[in-house]
Amino acid sequence: MKNVFIHYRWFIVLAINAVLFFAAFFMPVLWYAAIILLFTFAALTVIDILLLFGRNRTLEMHRIVPDRWHLAEDNPVRLQLKNRFGYAIKVECIDEVPVQFQIRDFVLYKQLSAGQEDLISYELKPLSRGLYRFEHIIAFVTSPLGLLKRRIVMDEPAEVKVYPTTRYLKNYQLMATSDRNQMAGTKKIRRLGHSLEFEQIKEYVNGDDIRTINWKATARKNNMMVNTFTDVRAQMIYCVIDKGRSMKMPFEGMTLMDHSIKSALTFMNVALHRHDKVGLITFSSSVQDIIPAEASPGQMNKILETLYHQHTDFLDADFERLVTVTRHKLSQRSFLMLYTNFESLTSLERQMPFLRGLAKRHLLCVVFFENTTIKELKDAQPDTTEGIYTRTIVDRFDYEKKQMVKELRRYGIIAVLTTPEKLTVDVVNNYLELKSRQSI
After folding, report:
1. Which pairing describes strands 277-283 and 236-242: parallel, antiparallel, or unpaired?
2. Which residue, of 214, 353, 356, 379, has the fewest CB within 10 Å?
3. What does the pLDDT read at residue 22?
């Protein structure tokens, strides 16, 4: 029987019986004891088989798992077990978790009394986005005799989508809705201008710009009327995410692209609460996803569904193609938050003509990363020749990163140099600062 497995107790009893038979050659009186033990052992084995494989005796198993998980968070999984054997059993349960976890010795233990229904709970922490698939639930059931085990396999496939975490979105919404100027008691000033959003027609008062006179309204009212304008609230904002090989560098179990996606979701959620329109562009050797900027209620879900299965590749990002596509797809001047990475000044200089091309048509902010390993080495004090040499190389890399920031700002490009752990805070603060200066 392929579903029967022998418990270690069975071998112990068999070994004792073999010893008795061997001893019976020297002490014949033990022969009868060995025969009795052998028949008893055989009878108990048959009884154990009947107990485990009797009619309507089984273990019901069901996996309870949500359809959506969050990246880099502990996500719950529950196994629901119900004992239908009619007596107390011991269960060794193996859940075939998705291959992404590479868990090979995952066994859960449970004791169930007759008719008892209970749950086994555990948590899994995914470190990559995408589709995860559970397979079978395998249980090894032991009766009170404990000589044999019965294997029960339940076909319980389940698929789970792992999305970027959205746990911190509400924390940053407070930054989006709070207005420090109003709290400080300063007065909000309405600016007038032709390129701004039309607000209303009002009577002319001293100090109004005569260029805003509405002559048709003046003729109807027989009084001087002027148009007033307010700042356009809904600005076009795009998160542009580089999926090239430079974004495959790991940090705390996740790639730089994973950290960028987490930051982009938080940033776009803040922008929506600031009444801006948000969109998404992803690119590598080609521009692969473009979601037009909108402020609709379902925009975040649309972006989330696009981002959850994105992966980096081993190709270089084609910034020239990005410039070409954005020139045709983005007709209106927009704010581009570009998540990428440059490890050397030379790599930045190769892409600088294309970044300048983006900056001519849009307000461009380039977000790239400090090398945290280099930062740790820089803080260490060398005490050997090798350490001094390493420190010299580290200082050179650190100097190049700072030069990259200066080079970008020299051409009017906003630069944010940060670490993955500070990425979200730095990006959101930079956006709110630009909004407060009315640069966006």
Report:
1. parallel
2. 379
3. 80
